[in-house]
Amino acid sequence: MQAGDIGWERFGDEVLSDRSHRLIFILEASIDWNVTLYQRPHHMALALGKLGCLVLYRTTGDGVVGFRSIGTNVWLTNDPKVEAIDGAVRCFYSTTLFAEDRDFLSAKKSGFVTYEYIDHIDASISGGTSSLRRLLKLKQVAFANADLVVSSAKLLQEEAVQACGAARCVFVPNGVDVAHYRNEGHATYDISSALQAFKDSHRNIVGYFGAIAPWLWYELVAEISEMMPDVGFVFIGPDYSGCIPLLPRRSNVLYLGPVDYKNLPSYARLFDACFIPFVMGDIARATSPLKLFEYFALEKPVVVTGDMQECVVYEEVFSGNNAIEFARAIENALNVRNDPSFKRRLSDLADANRWDIRAETYVSKIESLIASADPVP
After folding, report:
1. Per-residue pLDDT tens over the stretch 168-185
2. What CATH number corresponds to the domain at position 245?
3. Which structural domain range is residue 305 located in?
């Protein structure tokens, strides 16, 4: 428990009693708040709060006892009494580590429920066979019962619309907190001496931040790092499923481990270009990478594998389907890294894909559905 945590009664008196909130969201437990890899639930919670919604972010960890303020209108909570809040929107994520289909059906009995379909459900993402079965069952129940299905990628949206009908679906890709990446104060954080030395010893740096996970194309990384010995390849992020040994052991490949979100801009500003080397296939085709828009905000050219449909829709993004094409794409990206016109285009793309825009789409769709369901007096 931290100083400042408050109980249910005080929360009710001081927060719930305020009827000016646009909507009340309960983000069901999917991932703890205090993790090194900031993800969609974190960003969406903060963006919804800034739009005037009250957001309750449920957690099974984080040391909270009761309720803890973590942002404008955003509260971290482990109190099950929130399930009794009248009129709240209950949000379940397709990637949740905790929820089961019965939790979804229970929430449905008491109000408006949304299902955030944010990744292709696959064993390499879902954490094993038992978790895969649980998430597929949750998806089946959600498609049948959700008041709204929120999809992060066009491929997922097409599947949801086919299963649920367009009226119950909305397309809300990932976004970016542009202020975070443009905040000059964040550039003052110290970076590791290993990164600075690596930068000094290579002609150019191509960087990645995110999970070091099974969906990265390690064979491709091995090939391009061998083909481009004067380019340094940097990986930042937590190890998912013991994948660090899959990174090439070469002098021009550097793994730095996780870096706190507040420090990422300082590190990434040293990159000359960024890349997202996902394995070709269903996961790549159905992923809207958060990091794409964060790279845009940093005004860094981006190279991806060709199956990443949510990335290659932007003509500014470079892509390749094999090592030779990917290496050529990196060279093309590096050629424009200092082009003022190109950098301005990336900045404009970041502005067009802000989290507050995403959250407004989400809220407006819910408000429309609630209004259409209200009986005419």
Report:
1. 999 999 999 999 999 888
2. 3.40.50.2000
3. 178-352
- Residue 191, classified by CB atoms within 10 Å of its CB into exposed (0-12), middle (13-18) or buried (19+), is middle
321 and 365 belong to one structural domain:
no
Task: Answer yes or no: is pLDDT of 126 > 80.
Answer: no
At residue 375, the pLDDT reads: 57
Q: pTM of the predicted model, to two decimals?
A: 0.93
Give residue 223's pLDDT: 98
Classify residue 3: in a domain, yes or no: no
pLDDT score of 1: 56
Of 2 and 357, the one with more pLDDT? 357
Asked whether residue 95 falls in the same domain as residue 227, the answer is no
Residue 2 lies in a domain: no
Work out how many domains the chain is built from and give that number. Answer: 2
pLDDT one-digit tens code per residue, 33-44: 998 888 999 999
66 token code pair? 């009761």
| Lowest mean pLDDT, pick from 122-126, 157-161, 352-356 | 122-126
Q: Are residues 95 and 41 in the same domain?
A: yes
* pLDDT at res. 183: 87
Residue 250 sits in the same domain as residue 331:
yes
Q: Do residues 214 and 277 both lie within one domain?
A: yes
